[in-house]
Amino acid sequence: MSDIWVLGAGQLGAMLQHAAMPLALKVNTVDIHATDLPDLNHADIITVELEHWPETAVTALLSTHPNFLNRNSLKIFADRRLQKELLDSLSLPHANWQPVDIDMTARRLHHTLGNKVLLKRRSGGYDGKGQLWLNGEQEDEIPEQWINNCIAEEEVRFDEEVSLIGARNTQGNCVFYPLTANLHYQGILLASVSPIRSLQKMQSDAEQMLSSLMNHLEYVGVMAMECFQVGNRLYINEIAPRVHNSGHWTQAGASVSQFEMHLRAVAEIPLVQPVIKNSSVMLNALGMDYNKRWHAIAGAEVYWYGKDVRPMRKLGHINFSLPDKSRTAESLNQLKTLLDDYYADAINWCISHL
Question: Are residues 191 and 309 in the same domain?
Fold first, then answer.
Protein backbone atom coordinates (compact mmCIF):
# COMPACT_ATOMS: atom_id res chain seq x y z
CA MET A 1 0.00 0.00 0.00
CA SER A 2 1.22 3.50 -0.86
CA ASP A 3 2.63 5.74 1.86
CA ILE A 4 0.74 8.85 2.93
CA TRP A 5 2.83 11.96 3.45
CA VAL A 6 1.60 14.91 5.52
CA LEU A 7 2.94 18.35 4.68
CA GLY A 8 3.62 19.67 8.18
CA ALA A 9 4.89 17.98 11.32
CA GLY A 10 2.78 19.47 14.10
CA GLN A 11 0.19 17.93 16.39
CA LEU A 12 -2.38 17.39 13.64
CA GLY A 13 0.10 15.31 11.68
CA ALA A 14 0.99 13.34 14.80
CA MET A 15 -2.68 12.55 15.43
CA LEU A 16 -3.07 11.44 11.82
CA GLN A 17 -0.18 9.04 12.40
CA HIS A 18 -1.88 7.73 15.53
CA ALA A 19 -5.13 7.18 13.62
CA ALA A 20 -3.32 5.35 10.82
CA MET A 21 -2.26 2.34 12.88
CA PRO A 22 -5.62 0.50 12.98
CA LEU A 23 -6.05 1.10 9.24
CA ALA A 24 -2.73 -0.53 8.35
CA LEU A 25 -1.59 2.73 6.77
CA LYS A 26 1.86 4.28 6.93
CA VAL A 27 1.72 8.03 7.51
CA ASN A 28 4.86 10.17 7.41
CA THR A 29 4.90 13.77 8.60
CA VAL A 30 7.31 16.21 6.98
CA ASP A 31 8.70 19.35 8.60
CA ILE A 32 8.27 22.21 6.14
CA HIS A 33 11.83 23.36 6.92
CA ALA A 34 13.42 19.91 6.63
CA THR A 35 16.79 19.84 4.87
CA ASP A 36 16.70 16.11 4.09
CA LEU A 37 14.20 15.58 1.30
CA PRO A 38 11.88 12.55 1.61
CA ASP A 39 12.13 9.73 -0.91
CA LEU A 40 8.69 9.76 -2.51
CA ASN A 41 7.20 7.00 -4.59
CA HIS A 42 5.15 7.95 -7.65
CA ALA A 43 2.09 6.22 -6.13
CA ASP A 44 2.38 7.87 -2.71
CA ILE A 45 -0.38 10.22 -1.49
CA ILE A 46 0.30 13.76 -0.24
CA THR A 47 -2.04 15.54 2.16
CA VAL A 48 -1.60 18.48 4.54
CA GLU A 49 -2.07 19.56 8.14
CA LEU A 50 -1.89 23.25 7.20
CA GLU A 51 -2.98 25.40 4.27
CA HIS A 52 -0.22 28.04 4.50
CA TRP A 53 3.43 27.22 3.99
CA PRO A 54 6.59 29.00 2.84
CA GLU A 55 8.43 28.06 -0.32
CA THR A 56 11.13 25.62 0.78
CA ALA A 57 12.82 22.70 -0.91
CA VAL A 58 10.58 20.18 0.85
CA THR A 59 7.29 22.07 0.33
CA ALA A 60 8.15 22.46 -3.36
CA LEU A 61 8.79 18.72 -3.62
CA LEU A 62 5.57 17.64 -1.92
CA SER A 63 3.27 20.25 -3.47
CA THR A 64 4.31 19.32 -7.02
CA HIS A 65 3.87 15.56 -6.54
CA PRO A 66 1.23 14.14 -8.93
CA ASN A 67 -0.81 12.81 -5.99
CA PHE A 68 -0.80 16.05 -4.00
CA LEU A 69 -4.47 16.16 -3.02
CA ASN A 70 -6.66 19.27 -3.27
CA ARG A 71 -3.94 21.32 -4.94
CA ASN A 72 -6.32 23.93 -6.36
CA SER A 73 -8.53 24.04 -3.25
CA LEU A 74 -5.60 24.77 -0.99
CA LYS A 75 -4.59 27.76 -3.12
CA ILE A 76 -8.08 29.19 -2.69
CA PHE A 77 -8.30 28.68 1.06
CA ALA A 78 -4.82 30.10 1.62
CA ASP A 79 -6.12 33.46 0.37
CA ARG A 80 -9.15 34.93 2.16
CA ARG A 81 -10.09 37.05 -0.84
CA LEU A 82 -10.25 33.97 -3.10
CA GLN A 83 -12.16 32.15 -0.35
CA LYS A 84 -14.73 34.94 -0.15
CA GLU A 85 -15.11 35.07 -3.93
CA LEU A 86 -15.72 31.31 -3.98
CA LEU A 87 -18.42 31.56 -1.30
CA ASP A 88 -20.06 34.36 -3.29
CA SER A 89 -20.01 32.30 -6.48
CA LEU A 90 -21.79 29.43 -4.69
CA SER A 91 -24.30 31.77 -2.99
CA LEU A 92 -23.25 30.49 0.42
CA PRO A 93 -24.13 32.81 3.34
CA HIS A 94 -21.28 34.69 4.97
CA ALA A 95 -20.50 38.15 6.28
CA ASN A 96 -20.64 41.04 3.81
CA TRP A 97 -17.15 42.00 2.75
CA GLN A 98 -15.03 44.25 0.59
CA PRO A 99 -11.57 43.88 -0.93
CA VAL A 100 -9.10 46.44 0.39
CA ASP A 101 -7.14 47.85 -2.53
CA ILE A 102 -5.14 51.02 -3.01
CA ASP A 103 -8.26 53.13 -3.62
CA MET A 104 -10.16 51.96 -0.54
CA THR A 105 -10.66 54.23 2.47
CA ALA A 106 -11.96 53.61 5.96
CA ARG A 107 -14.83 56.02 5.29
CA ARG A 108 -15.97 53.92 2.30
CA LEU A 109 -15.69 50.71 4.31
CA HIS A 110 -17.82 52.11 7.11
CA HIS A 111 -20.38 53.40 4.61
CA THR A 112 -20.67 49.92 3.07
CA LEU A 113 -20.09 47.58 6.01
CA GLY A 114 -21.14 49.55 9.08
CA ASN A 115 -19.63 51.20 12.11
CA LYS A 116 -17.33 48.32 13.10
CA VAL A 117 -15.27 46.74 10.34
CA LEU A 118 -12.85 43.85 10.73
CA LEU A 119 -9.72 43.74 8.59
CA LYS A 120 -8.32 40.25 7.97
CA ARG A 121 -4.99 39.49 6.36
CA ARG A 122 -5.48 37.70 3.05
CA SER A 123 -2.94 35.03 3.97
CA GLY A 124 -1.65 33.69 7.25
CA GLY A 125 -3.21 34.72 10.50
CA TYR A 126 -4.90 32.25 12.81
CA ASP A 127 -6.00 32.07 16.45
CA GLY A 128 -6.99 35.72 16.33
CA LYS A 129 -3.77 36.90 14.66
CA GLY A 130 -3.75 38.96 11.47
CA GLN A 131 -6.90 40.92 12.35
CA LEU A 132 -7.58 44.60 13.02
CA TRP A 133 -10.82 46.36 13.97
CA LEU A 134 -11.73 49.74 12.51
CA ASN A 135 -14.16 51.74 14.65
CA GLY A 136 -16.20 54.29 12.75
CA GLU A 137 -16.61 56.49 15.81
CA GLN A 138 -12.95 57.41 15.49
CA GLU A 139 -11.16 59.17 12.65
CA ASP A 140 -9.53 55.92 11.65
CA GLU A 141 -7.66 55.08 8.49
CA ILE A 142 -6.54 51.82 6.94
CA PRO A 143 -2.89 51.26 7.89
CA GLU A 144 -0.73 51.45 4.78
CA GLN A 145 0.72 47.96 5.30
CA TRP A 146 -2.79 46.45 5.21
CA ILE A 147 -3.75 47.89 1.82
CA ASN A 148 -3.81 45.18 -0.88
CA ASN A 149 -3.01 42.63 1.84
CA CYS A 150 -6.39 42.18 3.51
CA ILE A 151 -10.13 41.98 3.16
CA ALA A 152 -12.72 43.85 5.21
CA GLU A 153 -15.79 42.26 6.83
CA GLU A 154 -18.85 43.66 8.55
CA GLU A 155 -19.30 42.90 12.25
CA VAL A 156 -21.52 39.86 12.82
CA ARG A 157 -23.36 39.89 16.14
CA PHE A 158 -23.72 36.17 16.65
CA ASP A 159 -25.48 34.01 19.20
CA GLU A 160 -22.93 31.19 19.04
CA GLU A 161 -19.77 30.18 17.21
CA VAL A 162 -20.25 26.75 15.67
CA SER A 163 -18.43 24.46 13.29
CA LEU A 164 -19.19 21.49 11.08
CA ILE A 165 -16.66 18.79 10.29
CA GLY A 166 -17.32 16.83 7.10
CA ALA A 167 -15.43 14.48 4.81
CA ARG A 168 -15.66 13.57 1.13
CA ASN A 169 -13.97 10.78 -0.85
CA THR A 170 -13.02 10.45 -4.50
CA GLN A 171 -16.43 8.94 -5.35
CA GLY A 172 -18.19 12.05 -4.01
CA ASN A 173 -19.58 10.37 -0.89
CA CYS A 174 -19.89 12.77 2.05
CA VAL A 175 -20.28 12.16 5.79
CA PHE A 176 -20.67 14.67 8.61
CA TYR A 177 -20.34 15.01 12.36
CA PRO A 178 -22.89 16.92 14.44
CA LEU A 179 -22.57 20.67 14.64
CA THR A 180 -20.20 21.73 17.41
CA ALA A 181 -20.45 24.80 19.66
CA ASN A 182 -17.12 26.56 20.20
CA LEU A 183 -15.84 29.05 22.74
CA HIS A 184 -12.82 31.25 22.00
CA TYR A 185 -10.52 33.12 24.37
CA GLN A 186 -8.38 35.94 22.97
CA GLY A 187 -9.18 34.61 19.50
CA ILE A 188 -8.02 31.06 20.31
CA LEU A 189 -10.33 28.06 20.55
CA LEU A 190 -10.65 27.17 24.21
CA ALA A 191 -13.54 24.70 24.38
CA SER A 192 -15.92 22.70 22.18
CA VAL A 193 -19.10 20.78 22.96
CA SER A 194 -20.96 18.38 20.64
CA PRO A 195 -23.63 17.30 19.92
CA ILE A 196 -26.05 19.97 21.17
CA ARG A 197 -29.81 19.60 20.86
CA SER A 198 -30.44 23.26 20.05
CA LEU A 199 -28.18 23.02 16.98
CA GLN A 200 -29.90 19.97 15.49
CA LYS A 201 -32.41 22.08 13.57
CA MET A 202 -29.54 23.65 11.60
CA GLN A 203 -27.68 20.40 10.87
CA SER A 204 -29.29 19.78 7.49
CA ASP A 205 -28.64 23.31 6.24
CA ALA A 206 -25.04 23.13 7.44
CA GLU A 207 -24.47 19.82 5.65
CA GLN A 208 -25.90 21.21 2.42
CA MET A 209 -23.59 24.22 2.65
CA LEU A 210 -20.46 22.20 3.25
CA SER A 211 -21.30 19.43 0.77
CA SER A 212 -21.94 21.99 -1.99
CA LEU A 213 -18.50 23.46 -1.31
CA MET A 214 -16.68 20.10 -1.21
CA ASN A 215 -18.47 18.80 -4.30
CA HIS A 216 -17.79 21.96 -6.29
CA LEU A 217 -14.07 21.62 -5.53
CA GLU A 218 -14.04 17.81 -5.87
CA TYR A 219 -12.36 17.92 -2.49
CA VAL A 220 -10.99 14.75 -0.87
CA GLY A 221 -10.58 14.48 2.90
CA VAL A 222 -11.86 16.28 5.97
CA MET A 223 -12.93 19.91 5.77
CA ALA A 224 -14.04 22.17 8.62
CA MET A 225 -16.58 24.96 8.22
CA GLU A 226 -16.56 27.56 11.00
CA CYS A 227 -19.78 29.57 11.24
CA PHE A 228 -21.59 32.24 13.18
CA GLN A 229 -25.06 31.25 14.38
CA VAL A 230 -27.51 34.16 14.17
CA GLY A 231 -30.96 32.98 15.20
CA ASN A 232 -31.72 29.96 13.02
CA ARG A 233 -29.22 30.88 10.32
CA LEU A 234 -25.54 30.08 9.84
CA TYR A 235 -23.00 32.42 8.26
CA ILE A 236 -19.67 30.97 7.18
CA ASN A 237 -16.71 32.60 8.90
CA GLU A 238 -13.73 30.50 7.80
CA ILE A 239 -13.08 27.26 5.93
CA ALA A 240 -10.21 24.96 6.93
CA PRO A 241 -9.28 22.35 4.29
CA ARG A 242 -7.93 19.83 6.80
CA VAL A 243 -8.61 18.23 10.17
CA HIS A 244 -9.47 20.92 12.68
CA ASN A 245 -9.14 21.74 16.37
CA SER A 246 -12.93 21.92 16.80
CA GLY A 247 -13.15 18.28 15.73
CA HIS A 248 -10.79 16.92 18.39
CA TRP A 249 -13.78 15.79 20.48
CA THR A 250 -14.40 13.06 17.87
CA GLN A 251 -11.42 11.14 19.23
CA ALA A 252 -13.51 10.33 22.31
CA GLY A 253 -17.09 10.88 21.18
CA ALA A 254 -17.39 9.17 17.79
CA SER A 255 -16.87 5.67 16.41
CA VAL A 256 -14.55 7.16 13.78
CA SER A 257 -12.47 10.21 14.67
CA GLN A 258 -11.94 13.07 12.23
CA PHE A 259 -8.34 11.87 11.81
CA GLU A 260 -9.34 8.36 10.84
CA MET A 261 -12.06 9.76 8.57
CA HIS A 262 -9.54 11.92 6.74
CA LEU A 263 -7.26 8.94 6.17
CA ARG A 264 -10.16 6.80 4.99
CA ALA A 265 -11.04 9.46 2.43
CA VAL A 266 -7.53 9.98 1.05
CA ALA A 267 -6.64 6.25 1.06
CA GLU A 268 -9.97 5.19 -0.53
CA ILE A 269 -11.09 3.18 2.48
CA PRO A 270 -14.92 3.21 2.75
CA LEU A 271 -16.44 6.17 4.59
CA VAL A 272 -19.13 5.45 7.16
CA GLN A 273 -21.43 7.83 8.99
CA PRO A 274 -19.80 8.09 12.44
CA VAL A 275 -21.77 6.78 15.39
CA ILE A 276 -21.89 9.45 18.10
CA LYS A 277 -21.41 7.96 21.55
CA ASN A 278 -22.24 10.72 24.02
CA SER A 279 -22.19 14.46 24.52
CA SER A 280 -18.52 15.32 24.35
CA VAL A 281 -16.37 18.18 25.62
CA MET A 282 -12.93 19.27 24.45
CA LEU A 283 -10.73 21.75 26.32
CA ASN A 284 -7.51 23.12 24.86
CA ALA A 285 -4.56 23.41 27.23
CA LEU A 286 -3.13 26.85 26.50
CA GLY A 287 0.26 28.04 27.73
CA MET A 288 0.51 25.69 30.71
CA ASP A 289 2.68 22.88 31.94
CA TYR A 290 1.62 19.25 31.69
CA ASN A 291 -0.10 17.98 34.86
CA LYS A 292 -0.23 14.26 35.66
CA ARG A 293 -3.18 14.84 37.98
CA TRP A 294 -5.46 15.41 34.99
CA HIS A 295 -5.36 11.65 34.43
CA ALA A 296 -6.95 11.00 37.82
CA ILE A 297 -10.22 12.64 36.74
CA ALA A 298 -12.90 10.23 35.57
CA GLY A 299 -13.29 10.24 31.80
CA ALA A 300 -10.37 12.57 31.05
CA GLU A 301 -8.60 11.65 27.80
CA VAL A 302 -5.43 13.73 27.61
CA TYR A 303 -3.46 14.45 24.44
CA TRP A 304 -0.15 16.23 24.98
CA TYR A 305 1.81 17.61 22.04
CA GLY A 306 5.30 17.83 23.55
CA LYS A 307 5.88 21.44 22.51
CA ASP A 308 7.72 24.16 24.42
CA VAL A 309 5.49 26.11 26.80
CA ARG A 310 4.69 29.63 25.57
CA PRO A 311 1.91 32.00 26.61
CA MET A 312 -1.43 31.04 24.99
CA ARG A 313 0.19 28.33 22.87
CA LYS A 314 -1.87 25.19 22.18
CA LEU A 315 0.05 22.53 24.07
CA GLY A 316 -2.53 19.75 24.35
CA HIS A 317 -6.20 19.04 24.79
CA ILE A 318 -8.45 17.06 27.11
CA ASN A 319 -11.56 15.20 25.92
CA PHE A 320 -14.53 13.98 27.93
CA SER A 321 -17.28 11.74 26.59
CA LEU A 322 -19.05 10.13 29.53
CA PRO A 323 -22.47 8.48 29.12
CA ASP A 324 -24.00 10.57 31.90
CA LYS A 325 -23.97 14.36 31.50
CA SER A 326 -23.98 14.86 35.26
CA ARG A 327 -20.81 12.77 35.52
CA THR A 328 -19.22 14.87 32.79
CA ALA A 329 -20.13 18.03 34.71
CA GLU A 330 -18.66 16.57 37.90
CA SER A 331 -15.40 15.72 36.14
CA LEU A 332 -15.20 19.17 34.56
CA ASN A 333 -15.64 20.81 37.94
CA GLN A 334 -12.78 18.68 39.28
CA LEU A 335 -10.61 19.71 36.34
CA LYS A 336 -11.40 23.37 37.06
CA THR A 337 -9.28 23.19 40.21
CA LEU A 338 -6.24 22.07 38.17
CA LEU A 339 -6.36 24.78 35.49
CA ASP A 340 -5.73 28.51 35.32
CA ASP A 341 -8.46 30.78 36.64
CA TYR A 342 -9.74 31.86 33.23
CA TYR A 343 -10.87 28.28 32.57
CA ALA A 344 -13.61 28.60 35.19
CA ASP A 345 -15.92 30.51 32.85
CA ALA A 346 -15.10 28.15 29.98
CA ILE A 347 -15.94 25.09 32.05
CA ASN A 348 -19.19 26.66 33.22
CA TRP A 349 -19.98 27.36 29.55
CA CYS A 350 -19.29 23.72 28.67
CA ILE A 351 -21.56 22.44 31.46
CA SER A 352 -24.36 24.79 30.34
CA HIS A 353 -24.14 23.32 26.81
CA LEU A 354 -24.30 19.65 27.81
Answer: yes
Alpha helices in 102-163 (DSSP H): 106-113
- pLDDT tens-digit series, residues 20-75: 999 999 999 999 999 999 999 999 999 999 999 999 999 999 999 999 999 999 99
Is 171 among the domain residues?
yes
| Total number of domains in the chain | 3
| Residue 44, domain CATH | 3.40.50.20
Side chain identity, residue 189: L
Q: Is the pTM of this model over 0.85?
A: yes
What is the predicted pLDDT for the residue at 139? Answer: 65
Answer whether residue 73 is part of any domain: no
Report which of 260, 335, 343 is spatially closest to residue 299, judged by C-alpha positions. Answer: 335
Quick one: pLDDT at residue 126?
77
Say if residue 183 is in the same domain as residue 149.
Answer: no
181 in Cβ contact with 133 (< 8 Å)? no
On whether the CB atoms of residues 353 and 181 are closer than 8 A, the answer is yes
Contacts of 260 (CB under 8 A, 6+ apart): 19, 22, 23
Per-residue confidence (pLDDT) for residue 279, from 0 to 100? 96
**What range does the domain containing 254 cover?**
160-353
> 296-306: string of b/e by CB count within 10 Å (b at 16+)?
ebebbbebebe
Is residue 200 located within the same domain as residue 328? yes
Contacts of 165 (CB under 8 A, 6+ apart): 176, 177, 180, 222, 223, 224, 244, 246, 247, 250, 258
